[in-house]
Design goal:
With about 550 residues, this protein is mostly helical. It has helices at about 10-15, 65-80, 85-115, 120-150, 155-160, 180-200, 205-235, 240-245, 255-275, 280-285, 290-305, 305-315, 355-375, 380-395, 400-430, 440-450, 470-475, 480-495, 500-510, 515-525, 535-545; strands spanning about 320, 335-340, 345.
């Protein structure tokens, strides 16, 4: 019988999402894969500490996480849980969480520094240490919750700190988080580490690329097998169901998504094919220095004002961003919340092109959401609305807004189609019979999906999926880009109908902690992407703005 755990194991996702990001280039026209590595939280027990108005990134000191100290604090908290004094129990819990937060803050720092130079052996080692110990840190968190569930002051803890019913899950005979599950997570982390080691290597010949692609494909095969074990261990019928429940707050089903993705293929792929040869790509890839990229986002922040401007000023004063070109930089972009410092950080791998403006605006949107909410606990689909929404809202500012608008709309069409293709590939990958889950089986599956979604019109390589890191580190995340892009586009539509209306809606909800996507859309008075006729309206907008 299938178990359904709707409580998000957010710490697992936090571990999974590190060293991944929002943009990855493949061989097509605009090959941007968007994402956020902002860790989610399991509860909003108390307000996060106020943003530190003094600390700068260069002042943040990395020290390897002390796992023995974290374990000692766990034991102290478990001992305190036997007490009936709720305040004393929470003092011990807070001590554990302070060290736990430092673990993930240092994990993020190692991630940032390693991403800045993938050839740096020190940061590679430190990042690997954090990856390998994340599962243990999260298992200890689960152990703590189990102990608190048995505390004589449990009712007080729920009433005053955690929320009514929080510990109900830990009353089950088997909560699922034991040494066996921790070991599965450890093995997953080891495979992910090996994947990034391969990503750091630069193939010099076609033979080198093919060998690397096959090894990466084998790692994905191994990950699929490992995740099949997780699915079976927890009693789920499919990995999609498992990921939906364990990693994401989603109030729509995998079945709804599959039907929606089929509609995207049917309605938007013909337009995607029409993009071939359009001069919009020449504008996107035209040379643009760092100063123009920074200037665009600064102009947008000044134009939008309010919390967005405050966030930009904090980001600039604290040097909480990296948009510099680097030959050994990890080829993606992301934003991360540094919990122990109470500030976000933006990492961008630029190409010194006009398109960098949109990439930076995207990550800055995540920064604004984290800044406004003191570390957002919103669901991943909601988070992506603020990043993609900032891209749309930044369009009127900076240089040549008309050209940038065409670039963004072309990019948006690509986001619908390409990310839908990746999502379909991933859903079908985990549904393959076990005997078909081979390197060659993956190549054949991707080849079929690529042709279905029109990649043959722009050129593709059936091996290129191995360069999409989300398949390795963020399973079942990719669909978030498609549905959230629809919501973000609605902000653009509001702006077109009445200047300032989309920006007002954006600013109004920037501090949200809403975890459910459809619930957020209702709260923000936006339409569901699954609503009848919605995709037809999107298609018509593209027709008018791009192909008129």
């Amino acid at each position: 019988m299938k178990k359904r755990k709707t409580r998000l194991l957010a710490a697992v996702l936090a571990a999974v999402l590190l060293l991944t990001g929002c943009s990855e280039r493949t061989s097509r026209r605009l090959e941007e894969l968007r994402g956020s590595i902002t860790p989610l939280q399991t509860e909003q027990r108390e307000t996060h500490p106020a943003q530190n108005q003094e600390v700068t990134f260069r002042e943040m000191v990395y020290v390897r996480p002390d796992m023995e100290a974290l374990e000692d604090l766990l034991e102290q908290a478990r001992t305190a849980a036997r007490d009936s004094d709720a305040e004393a129990v929470m003092d011990a819990v807070d001590a554990f969480y302070e060290e736990y937060d430092w673990f993930y803050t240092r994990y993020s720092l190692a991630d940032i520094h390693y991403s800045q130079d993938l050839t740096d052996e020190y940061w590679e080692t430190e990042y690997a240490f954090c990856v390998e110990n994340a599962a243990q840190a999260d298992a200890w968190q689960e152990d703590l919750f189990c102990a608190l569930a048995q505390s004589p002051c449990r009712r007080t803890l729920e009433r005053d700190y955690f929320g009514e019913g929080f510990f109900d899950y830990y009353d089950e005979d088997e909560n699922g988080w034991d040494e066996e599950f921790t070991e599965l997570l450890r093995q997953e982390g080891a495979l992910q580490n090996r994947y990034y080691e391969l990503c750091a290597q630069q193939p010099l010949t076609e033979a080198d690329y093919d060998a690397g692609a096959r090894e990466k494909a084998q790692i994905l095969v191994d990950l699929v097998g490992l995740r099949r074990e997780m699915t079976e261990y927890w009693g789920y019928e499919s990995y999609a169901d498992f990921a939906w429940d364990f990693y994401y707050y989603r109030d729509y089903t995998p079945e709804e998504v599959e039907a929606y993705l089929e509609e995207v293929c049917r309605e938007l792929v013909p337009l995607y094919r029409e993009l071939v040869g359009m001069d919009v790509w020449d504008a996107a890839y035209a040379y643009a220095p760092r100063s123009q990229t920074l200037g665009h986002v600064r102009a947008a922040a000044e134009g939008l004002g309010g919390t967005v401007l405050e966030a930009f000023q904090r980001m600039e004063a604290g040097e909480l961003y990296d948009i510099d070109f680097g030959a050994n930089k990890y080829g993606t972009s992301f934003e991360v919340w540094l919990e122990s410092y109470g500030v976000p950080f933006v990492f961008v791998c630029p190409y010194n092109e006009v398109y960098d403006r949109l990439t930076f605006a995207h990550e800055f949107g995540h920064f604004c959401n984290d800044y406004a909410s003191s570390g957002s606990g919103a669901g991943v689909d909601v988070l992506e609305i603020f990043s993609q929404g900032m891209e749309y809202l930044s369009l009127p500012y900076g240089e040549d807004p008309e050209t940038l608008t065409r670039v963004k709309l072309a990019d948006s069409l690509c986001t619908y189609v390409e990310q839908a293709a990746y999502a379909v590939f991933e859903l079908r990958l985990y549904a393959l019979p076990e005997e078909k889950q081979t390197v060659e089986g993956l190549f054949e599956l991707y080849d079929q999906v690529a042709r279905d979604f029109g990649f043959d019109s722009v050129g593709y390589d059936r091996r290129e999926f191995v360069d999409v890191s989300h398949f390795y580190t963020d399973p079942m995340y990719i669909v978030s880009y498609v549905v959230s892009n629809d919501a973000a586009m609605q902000l653009y539509e509001l702006e077109q109908a009445q200047p300032g209306a989309g920006a007002e809606r954006y600013l109004q909800h920037l501090d949200t902690w809403e975890v459910y996507f459809l619930a957020f859309l209702e709260e923000a008075d936006l339409e569901s992407p699954f609503a009848p006729g919605r995709l037809q309206a999107v298609k018509e907008l593209f027709r008018q703005k791009l192909f008129a």
